[in-house]
Amino acid sequence: MERQRWNRDMMEQMMSLLQFFQDNGISVDRSLGTGILALLPEDPKLRMAYAMMRFMDEIPGGFMIYRAHGAEEIIYANRGLLRILRCDSWEQFQKLTGGSFRGLVHPEDLDEVEESIKRQIADSQYDLDYVEYRVICRDGTISWIEDYGHFAHGESMGDFFYVFLGDATEKKDRQRGEREEAERRYQGLIQEYDRERALINQEHLRRLEVIEGLSVNYETILYADLEQDRILPYWLSQRTVRQFGEKYQMKGLRWYLDDYVKVWVHPEDREMVIRETDPEYIRKRLLEITTYYMNYRVICGDEVQYLQLRVVNVSAGERVDQIVMGYRRVDEELQRELQQKQMLAEALENANLAIVAKNEFLSNMSHDMRTPLNAIFGYTTLAKMEITEPEALGYLERVESAGRQLLDLIDKVLEMSWIGSKEREQEEECDLCQIAREVWESFLAQATEKDLRFTLDCSDVRHSAILSDRERLRQLITYLASNAVIYTEPGGQASITLEEREDRDRPWGTYCIVVEDTGVGMDQAFLKRVFEPFARQRNSTFSGVPGVGLGLTIAKYIVDRMGGTIQVDSVAGKGSVFTVTLHLQVSTRGAAARQPEGLEQAAGQKILLVEDNEINREVETEILRGGGFSVDTAENGREAVDKVKGSAPGTYDLVLMDIQMPVMDGWQAARAIRSLEDPELAGIPIMALSANVLESDVRQSLESGMDAHLAKPLDVSQLLRELHRWTEKKNEKKNS
Prior knowledge:
- This protein is an alpha+beta fold.
- The chain has 5 domains: about 1-210, PAS domain (Beta-Lactamase), CATH 3.30.450; about 220-330, PAS domain (Beta-Lactamase); about 345-415, no CATH class; about 430-585, Heat Shock Protein 90, CATH 3.30.565.10; about 600-735, 3-Layer(aba) Sandwich (Rossmann fold).
- Helices cover about 45% and strands about 20% of the residues.
- The strands form 4 sheets. Strands 12, 13, 14, 15, 16, 17 and 18 form a 7-stranded mixed beta sheet that branches.
- Strand 15 and strand 16 (about 510-515) form a beta hairpin.
- Helix 17 (about 430-450) runs parallel beside helix 18 and helix 22 (about 635-645) packs parallel to helix 23 (about 665-675).
- The chain starts with a helix and ends with a helix.
């Protein structure tokens, strides 16, 4: 009876508070604002009522107060009830319900509900009722409500109900499904529906005798004053009632928390609970957010239970001195969470296995296809050196062109493999204009053959030296330039233009890469999917152009990974303009070193070529010697290690290392060389030359101690560039 009287008094206080708001023209929405507490009289009961109202606005379920007679006017409704009815404001709620309990209940359920409430209140010792009914939400949908009501009388406000509400739609749907699955049984049970419903109501009433209070969701409710170090209980669970006594005596906050932790909290969670319930910690957290929660364990006899503590700031202004704490059991929720985490972990494991299998397949495919291609390109190169007859040279050019198309297809398929991966870009010093020039030069012969005017303009770039992923930038410009050259008819124009825009955010700069052509262009329908994988516009002129439609997809992904944007403007029959905007870090070390343009760098350099395939070894030896290198060979990694170990320092300027070899693979050999006692021998530059070109392969080469990873077929100019970059880095280390 004492507890019921306390609850009635608290509701009476809240009614008085709401009357105060009405008298002063304060809306329900505004009443929960940060400045309202300052307007309240210095009445501890009103301020306690305001704190309780603030807390009830944060509870998961619905709560409302309405007059028991007349139009049954709804005086207050929390945000939980507004969410159930799909309302965004108190005004929308008022409009939907007409501001009354009768307007809330579905018209078809109203008479039964009101009759049931009257009957239960008349029969209940504690003036309690439980009803279920439908409501029409603001969006027109119909939801089911569980209604836990308590009739009370206030001296100033007269008769009223305060009600806790929950969304029972899911429960009703589940019950309906169960009825459909067990229709025969349900048909037998429906004859006893009235009796069973009465029993259900009685069961809920018994439950309400235990959980009746601020919320059906919290088993312990506490109000605390951080400044005064006081804590006042509102509703207590069996675990905590003995700490406050049967009369709910006020305690010191710090004393209560220390005592609570020592008595109930699991030893492994005590440190966390002490830390996150410290007043200073509470102040810090609630200055950032209005409410927070934590999960922890308590020991009840031999049973371990999971609890959730929710802390809500009910202070005025920007201070944190008044809080409300709610405790509830979350065993079932955590169990579901653990099950979900396990399912996600299993899904992630399966996904990782699929990625590993995919990469392994692509790696093997690349290796097996690049190995014969290496021989094709090599023998074609050697044949072109010996054959002078124009027709035969033409045949060789066609063989080489077909091989290049196949190699391009392999590269694009492999590059698609890292789309969606979390590999970080390899940041290094590079020259943006030089990268663009290399790409331009690589397409210049093809453009000249098609009688295209193909230009490069970097005049608007003031800071060409940047820190970025050189290879990704090269790929990006290559795909855009390739698209322009391929899809421009003979006699047309194509251009690459680099622009640097003003950027105050130094050392960063904003760069635009513009690739423009007068080619076939694209219609508006195709523009919407131009960056989709395998998207190709079909027309009579270019239907036979080789390709699979992956270049622009990869270009778009590169731009996204680098945090930039790509835009395309195109008109069918007139051409296209691709504009890439990137925010790149400007190098503080000045212009990046220019790469060598000729083969004179090779003069006098001796290479140890490690290759197990006899044909590839023969072809690569001839190509390297034709480029001016002196070449020694080894058939496996073990032989290579022995040759380096047995040589005098300076004998070899470079080791070109294949990866997949018998006896000892390239990665093992590189680690063995780096472990040699002689620092000069251990420091010899090692570059992988392999048909394994996946990101994981390149990363493993670098992790094994190699300085670079080159892809087969061998490109002498690329080899020279890498040699030059390695030499520059070596000189920088010596000078630093």
